[in-house]
Amino acid sequence: MKIFVCIKSVPDTAATIKLSGESSFEDSDCKFVINPYDEYGIEEAVTLVEKNGGEVVVITAGRASADGALRSAMAIGANRAIHVKTEEQFLDSSFTAKVLKAAIERDGMPDIIFTGKNSVDTEGFQTPYRLAAELGFPVVNEISKLKINGDKAVAEREIGGGDREVLEISLPAVIGVTKGLNEPRYPKFPDIMKAKKKPVNLITISDLGIDELFSKSRLVKLESAPERSGAKMIQGSVEAQVKELIRILKEDEKVL
Amino acid sequence: MNKKYDAIIIGAGVIGCPIAYELCKMGYKTLNVDKNPDAGEGSTAGSCAIVRAHYSTADGVAMAYEGFKYWLDWENYLDHVKDEKGLAKYMNTGSLLLKSEGHDWKKVKKNYDEVGVKYEEWDNEKIKQMIPPIDLHKFWPVTRPEDPKFYDEPTEMLEGGIFCPEGGYMNDPALSAHNIMRATEAKGGQFIFNAEVVSIRSENGRVVGITLKDGTQIDSPIVVNVGGPHSFKVNKMAEGVWEGCNIKTKALRHEVMYCPSPDDYDYLNKGYHMSDGDIACYSRPEVGNTFLIGSEDPKCDPQEWVDPDEFYAGKGGPGRDNQLTEAQWKAQCYRWAKRIPTLPVPNQPKGVVDLYDCSDDWIPIYDKSDLNGFYMAVGTSGNQYKNAPVVGRMMAELINACERQGLEHDKTPFQFKYQYTGRVMNVGFFSRKRAINKNSSFSVNG
Ligand SMILES: Cc1cc2nc3c(=O)[nH]c(=O)nc-3n(C[C@H](O)[C@H](O)[C@H](O)COP(=O)(O)OP(=O)(O)OC[C@H]3O[C@@H](n4cnc5c(N)ncnc54)[C@H](O)[C@@H]3O)c2cc1C
Fold first, then answer.
1. Helical spans, DSSP H, in A53-167
2. Are B101 and B228 contained in the same domain?
């Protein structure tokens, strides 16, 4: 079984991000982690390969610093990594999908490709679909339960209101995963040490014959989210409070 | 008319609260003023709250041992006060000091003998029996993961450790300060929160009161600086006080990491507090069968001195806010993982960052000042949580001796008698005028 896991190195959501210039931020100060949803994919892939044999390849399109995320993934148990080097942190998802497709094809076709359901930095929710379209694979996303039966997979996703959708898809497929699928294991120090020595195949965009400038969207501007102001206490009788609340919702917040 | 108190205590952390408590018990009408919204919400909230006796000076050992007795007797100490939040709990795990080149453990042992601290010597075999996942190789000297030497294979073994059955931690440090606040209120003490002191007023060489940010003035002939990491800022507000200190304080950033315990080891219920100078880390159990891993500040680690206001405002990127840094996460977790090789190290870091109020020699200043009526309990250097109730008693007696009995503490230092161990402490040891104490470990070990 050959499984690819597409991962992304993203700023820790708890990090304080300092903007610099129009559309970038000071990343030397900022801690980067594996996109948390991708960890479910890594864990699932590693467990499947532990059971059935084969190999887990983690792949990322990202800057030099994304090496940290690849090493973390290999500490969880991925066998090797492919790093398509880019200059930018923010990539257009159609571009990412093309890059991943080319690199995966070059490496040899997999049985399954896992991705996280989305990345927590840009929240694009597109890469799994676009990658599947590029490859002509079926795709399911937000999967929290999975069973592999030969060349088929039975995947479950929550669709709100406590209901679950059960899907059967043929492999190879792109499977976007989310919380609930498993408990990603924590690497131990010897695993971390081993991961340092596992092979990372470093390739460039041009190695893949893709035009670096190909991008359907472009990041124009980054702005900090407005600081949340503290809670406002409304005083007075119940009636007065309700009146004031409605006034605020209508006039100040303009939501009614 | 300004409100008037017998004593104003700036700060309602785990050190400020017991000072007020003891003063109240002596009949003083006290007011604690804190800019945070509740007691213990300052650096106390981030504390590991470890209670252990090993210090590099006999006085340090004695005080910690005395402090231990208070935590053991917590409900009594609080005079059985009710706290709507519940009571903090002392967890007696026992405390293991590994013998290493990173600690002057021979000095510690001598101090234990002098003070009468109970201890056992454990050889490697015994340690291994008590802590199955431990690796007792010697990893000295301490290095950082960026240094290739970090990964050198160890060849020698450590030589055992010193185990104190009396030691552990308080399970909720902020709550413990809150408990003391409730006990203080029961004795008539008052507290105000969200109230920042911006100036300290004095006349003719004597303190007369404080002024809050909103302009409110409150008067008192006694003001005590227990501002934690802000202590140097508070000292600078009082005329001549900062200048009159030979030992100064400043705020040092400190990260504490959380790693789950290996699956087959019940660290929470069977583990010990451990001090490991060989890798410059300490640890204690935390709920969720977690290792809480702190650093003993080895020389190879950068020290980050920060502005406490900027830090607590969360401004200015890592190094100046309350987020773990990747480099330090690796340093502390990987070091601890050498000792516990099956330690799981999460890819997504979890932990706490807070500030030490560090003095020049990592020994606190418990003293009067060059301004009459102005006192300080500062420079707690990351290791005074355990002493808080003793410090409360000692400071209250010192203040009372100076204010009501005319003691000239700078000339004839106050002698404080410990309630439990009966030992007498020369409070001059903690003087702001002292020369740097060369016996100190110059680290969080004190
Ligand atoms: C991460 C960490 C781990 C630690 N681990 C241990 C340990 O394991 N064992 C141990 O013994 N010790 C430990 N310590 C040390 C111990 O926790 C501290 O020494 C102790 O909590 C300090 O208490 P405090 O009351 O002096 O300070 P704080 O709790 O910081 O209280 C000071 C208060 O003063 C207030 N204040 C400051 N300036 C003003 C102003 N101008 N106006 C109004 N209010 C003001 C602040 O708001 C704050 O609430 C640790 C410390 C840290 C940071």
1. 67-76, 93-107, 127-135
2. no
What is the ipTM metric for this complex? 0.71
At B4-37, the pLDDT tens digits run 999 999 999 999 999 999 999 999 999 999 999 9
Mean per-residue pLDDT, B227-247: 97
CATH code, domain with B422: 3.50.50.60
Whether residues B274 and B288 fall in one domain:
yes
pLDDT at B322 (0 to 100) = 66
Indicate whether A35 pLDDT > 70.
yes
Q: Among A31, A38, A197, which would you mutate to test the B interface (most chain B Cβ atoms within 10 Å of its Cβ)?
A: A31
* Helix/strand/coil for A238: helix
Domain residues for B320? 92-168+253-353
Q: Is the pLDDT of residue B236 over 50?
A: yes
B342 with B287, same domain: the answer is yes
Chain A residues lying within 8 Å of B259, measured CB to CB:
186
Domain count, chain B: 2
Residues B339, B209, single domain; the answer is no
> Is any ligand 1 atom within 6 A of the Cβ of residue B60?
no
State the pLDDT confidence band at A235, using cuts at 50, 70 and 90.
confident
Q: Are B426 and B415 in contact (CB under 8 A)?
A: yes
Any idea what the CATH number is for the domain that residue B114 is in?
Answer: 3.30.9.10
pLDDT in tens, B293-329: 999 999 999 999 999 998 888 764 444 456 888 899 9
Cβ–Cβ under 8 Å, residues A1 and A7:
no
The Cα of A77 is separated from the nearest Cα of chain B by a number of Å equal to 13
Answer whether residue B443 is part of any domain: no
Site from B255, B320, B339, B348 to mutate, A interface, most A CB atoms within 10 angstroms? B348
Average pLDDT over residues B222-250: 98
Flag whether B437 is in a domain.
Answer: no
Segment A151-177, tens digit of pLDDT: 999 999 999 888 999 999 999 999 999
